[in-house]
Amino acid sequence: MNIFFAILLFFMNSSPIIDVHEFHLSKSTINYNTEDKSLQITMNMFIDDLELALQPTAGDSLRICTRKEKESAEKSIHTYILEHFVIEINGQRVTPTFLGKEPSDDLAAVWCYLEVQGLPEFSEISITNDIMIDLFDDQKNMTSIQLNKERIEDILFTPEKTTDKIEIHD
């Protein structure tokens, strides 16, 4: 009888998988390097979620981080990031340059690298991060703000909070 319940429990918990993962999260770091006068941005997103987010504008699967990746993948990713991850420095919007991307070690996510060069020191940074918020009601976007790789603040963006402003003090 115990084996019957064990098998039943197994099949109840192994229903067809709709999502590859049970949570929806992106992670970003914005580091201001005072020596280079640049914002260095890293972003980490689940590839399946990003593919879904890009479908309305890029069409079918871009096959991100595979040998069959479409030529338009990086441009589509960059365009999406510029629309959904907005940075303002002292009230002026800046446009990061897309430097490249690479898969995570487990191949489930993609790391994207962006940069804004030629920024004099500033006192205020405003961030709007609504990456995939329109797709998943449980989407969370963690963003870490750093000055010369020293943590200033961590921000959690949710469907209820997509914008925040941070004062930078030396």
Write the layout of secondary structure elements.
Elements: H1 2-13, E1 25-33, E2 38-46, H2 47-58, H3 73-84, E3 85-89, E4 92-94, E5 97-103, E6 109-116, E7 124-129, E8 140-147, E9 150-157, E10 163-167
Parallel strand pairs: 1-8
Antiparallel strand pairs: 1-2, 2-6, 3-4, 3-7, 5-6, 7-10, 8-9
Describe what you observe in this structure.
This protein has 170 residues and is of the alpha+beta class. It has one domain (20-167). The protein is built from three helices and ten strands; from the N terminus they run αββααββββββββ. The strands form two sheets. The protein has a six-stranded mixed sheet with strand order 5-6-2-1-8-9. Strands 4-3-7-10 form a four-stranded antiparallel sheet. The longest helix has 12 residues, at 2-13.
Write the element-wise H/E pattern from the N-terminal end onward.
Answer: HEEHHEEEEEEEE
- Helix segment tally: 3
Q: What is the residue-mean pLDDT, rounded to a whole number?
A: 89
Extract low-pLDDT stretches: 1-19
Distance between the termini: 67 Å
The helix-and-strand class reads alpha+beta
**Outline type:** globular
